[in-house]
Specification:
Blueprint lengths: L4 E5 L21 E7 L1 H14 L29 H7 L25 E4 L4 H12 L7 E4 L7 H7 L7 E4 L2 E4 L1 H11 L10 H24 L8 H10 L15 H21 L8 H10 L3 H4 L5 H12 L4
Helix pairs in contact: 3-5, 3-8, 6-7, 6-8, 8-11
The protein binds glutathione.
Glutathione binds next to loops.
Amino acid sequence: MAVCYISGIGFGPSPTFQYSPNRTIPFSSNQITTTTLPRTKALSCFHHATTSVQPTFSFHCKTKTHFPFRPPWPASNKPTTISSAMSSGYVQEDLPPALDSTSDPPPIFDGTTRLYISYTCPYAQRVWITRNCKGLQDKIKLVPIDLKNRPTWYKENVYPPNKVPALEHNNEVKGESLDLIKYIDSHFEGPSLFPDDPAKKQFADELLSYIDSFYKTVTSSFKGEGTEAGIAFDNIETALTKFEDGPFFLGQFSLVDIAYAPFIERFHPFLLDVKKYDITLGRTKLATWIEEMNKNEGYTQTRCDPKELVESYKKRFMAHL
Ligand SMILES: N[C@@H](CCC(=O)N[C@@H](CS)C(=O)NCC(=O)O)C(=O)O
């Protein structure tokens, strides 16, 4: 088993900000040493780590509650010290229960930054992944809401559109997942998840604009054979060939991957189950992207049980059949 020692990273919004040497790297599953590297080098370490190195260990145990999908520590591997937790790269977060109509509101506008989500919402998931990948678990508190039995205070006192995600920060509440992932990336510490390179920036904007049309093309194909979604996945495959410095949309991992991940997480098992259509067949870049995303713990901690996702999509999209 290979272990990749990645160095402390000079990431961050200001040149003076640095990851503390002993802090975990949010989207890797590798060990950390204390050398400082320039950002570009560190990013290539990430890439190397996510493409060429085996994680130090992996989990195969079942959760009692499969929803959200978050495997517990296997007893034998449970770390006893912070550094052993970091050396596995797996930072287990205890997820709070969803608040419902019987729950009291949190002390809104008390200075705490809160991310209101639903464990099942793909839009909220984008923001949750961003928060995790930037290592902001201690800075942004998750407040899950039960959307089926919503507390009235949510609409009245927190976010009048009554949707998730919403971010309470600096005495304001903002919504819209694509705005929020950019907001978190630029207003909080942690590795930058949006490129500086103009060509990558432009492509990022194109891909973020395409996502609604991607979603509509795929979901409208559910009524037919499913294979009509092929063109949308071909577009994804083509997009993934554009930059060769990594397996992600912009080469390196970015907000674009985060924006697409929750939807591909749903489309992949649903089309396979219901239409017997494997979106990765003949699409090697997409297959690799899925594999690489599934190594990213900032993302995997937010994933839902695929069986539950399929069932929920069946109810939502196949109810007419
Ligand atoms: N465009 C919004 C969509 C958010 C959204 O539709 N969230 C759903 C849950 S997945 C929601 O809160 N629905 C509640 C409702 O519409 O009443 C975004 O990107 O954040």
